[in-house]
Amino acid sequence: MQTLKSWFSIIFIIGLIPTLYAETNAKVDPEVIDRIEEMGKYLRSLKKFEVESNFTFEIATEDNQKFSYPGKLHYKVKRPNKLFAELKSDHKQRQYYYDGTSMTIYDPKSKFYGQIAAPETIDELMEEIEENYKIILPLEDLFDWGTDKAPTDKISMATYIGESKINNIEVEQFVIRQGNIDWQLWVKKGDEPIPQKIIYTAIDDQVRPQFSAELKWTLDPKIKTNDFEFKPPKGSYKIEINPPEGDAVAKQKVSP
Amino acid sequence: MKALLITLSIFSLLPNAFAYRGGGIRARGGAPLNVNRNINVTRNVNVVGGGWHGYYPAPYHPVATAAVVTGAAVVTAAAIGSIVHSIPPNCINTVVNGVTYSQCGSTWYQPQYVGSSVQYVVVNPPK
Asked: What are the start-end ranges of the E strands in chain A?
């Protein structure tokens, strides 16, 4: 009886080996996860920052052609409740102003702006505008790292690539996979682990479109309160902001 | 002539002209969006960036559910309630009873943000 029990134990253990092996998957380098967590923690610790970015964004067509367009992003941020973001691309120009009480979105081309009452923090704002209006700010990831919106346990692959330099800044390059996105991150070495370059690739798409952005950081920016206050430019008009879901039909007074 | 002008003004917003005309920009997952109306779709690229939120353009696409009118159709039949993503350049913005309108000849639009995109809803002239 005792022998039989031992045999069962052995069989049980042998059966377990592949599972254990799979769980301590060599595809996730724990050191890379550590670096990414450090980066997230550091990004979250910044009380204010300014970041400027040149990016290239690829779009796939039905015929599996890819095309790309360039653009620029600019963020000025003062935690917990001040944010300015500007997107300039061939297709779209937008400015976002958040002053702690309201958020304004402004299109300099059409000169239309929309305003909504805003919650008390940048984090809440981002959640709210995504939830209610499906608005996601460009490179919003910079605010997600280090929070439960960017859970590192959802990373299925993580590889250390090596060291390099971006704009003369020493960086380390990582590749991670999360869901259907492959990320390449170039993170500054030393005690300011900020991403200097990000590329993400949609791996669920046959032509694998990429978004690529280099980031220039100012960690002690000159910030004025009115950087975050929207003053309607001459010739601008206020319009409503509506969510994209359902039939977006303008409310119009119908004469009796 | 008027129709031609409007068509040109819409097309000139595109980068490499018609390289992807007829193709249609697809949403994530590959479903074609408004194959004949891809100009609107292209202009409507919603978000740049956001890896944790998925790759864009996608998954929130206003055009997919909205009634979209092509440039040519705007001239001939501006059905009340239909939505366009651009209007001719000669329109005038006015505020009536606190509401902003764009008036293009006899056609009136009410511009609105849908998400972060500006759309124009064809409306009856305000009174």
From this structure: 48-60, 66-78, 82-89, 93-98, 102-107, 112-117, 155-166, 169-178, 181-188, 195-202, 210-218, 237-238, 240-242
Q: What is the ipTM of this complex?
A: 0.80
Contact by Cβ (8 Å): A222, A70: no
Q: What does A176-204 look like in DSSP terms, one character per residue? A: EEETTEEEEEEEESSS---EEEEEEEETT
Question: Is B103 in the A-facing interface, judged by CB distances under 8 Å?
Answer: no
Which residues 182-201 of A have a C-beta within 8 angstroms of B? Answer: 183, 198, 200
Express each pLDDT in A120-172 by its tens digit. 999 999 999 988 998 888 888 999 999 999 999 999 999 999 999 999 999 99
Radius of gyration of chain A, Cα coordinates, nearest whole angstrom: 23
Q: Over 60: is that where the pLDDT of A218 sits?
A: yes
Helix, strand, coil % over all residues of chain B, rounded to 5: 25, 25, 50
Domain that holds residue A42: 28-235
Distance CA A52, CA A196 (A): 11
* Number of separate domains in chain A: 1
Q: How confident is residue B71, by pLDDT bands cut at 50, 70 and 90?
A: very low
Q: Which CATH number covers residue A125?
A: 2.50.20.10
- Contact (CB<8Å) B121/A250: yes
Tell me what pLDDT residue B103 has: 96
* Rounded Cα–Cα distance for residues A247 and B65 (Å): 7
Return all residues near A34 (Cβ < 8 A) that are at least 6 apart: none
Residue A242 falls inside a structural domain: no
CA distance A242 to chain B (A): 5
